[in-house]
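Checklist before submission:
- one chain only
- standard amino acids only
- sequence pasted in full

Submission:
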Amino acid sequence: MVSLVCDNGRWSGSTDGAGGWAPGSLKAAPARGSVRAMKPHRLSHVSNGMQRKFIFALAAMLLASCAPLKIGRISADPSRFQNRTVRVSGTVVNSIGVMGRGGYQIQDDTGKIYVLSTTGVPSKGVRVTVTGTVVPGAQVLGMTVGTAIRERHHNVKD
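Returned file contents:
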């Protein structure tokens, strides 16, 4: 049995021993974000059917992303997510843009956050999923004010 866990964009996994790899050996490399490759001979004792299942599970894991974070979680501890890539979903409540650049604010059931965009600004009232890097705001009396996400891309939901 293959077990895969995603924690803030970092994958880890384990098997029951039949797959030939140790618990926790499937982890994203911190410097490059790539997955460590397994040596082909380590799977030579596993049946073709098991290899196919493993490859399918690995492909599904890599193609699927972690569930979006709640905005309130980022707002509660912005330093934890600073300079990390996150994915959030929400409704656009404010937006301003000129020639494909600008910013907008999205809201979910836990809070609001600003998004800085160079790829176009969605209209007010639209539901979006945003992937980007958390950038710090100003520190005022020990609280971070103005935390934002520098957008890599966004998807508009129908």
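Reviewer check: Confidence is low (pLDDT under 50) at residues 14-34.
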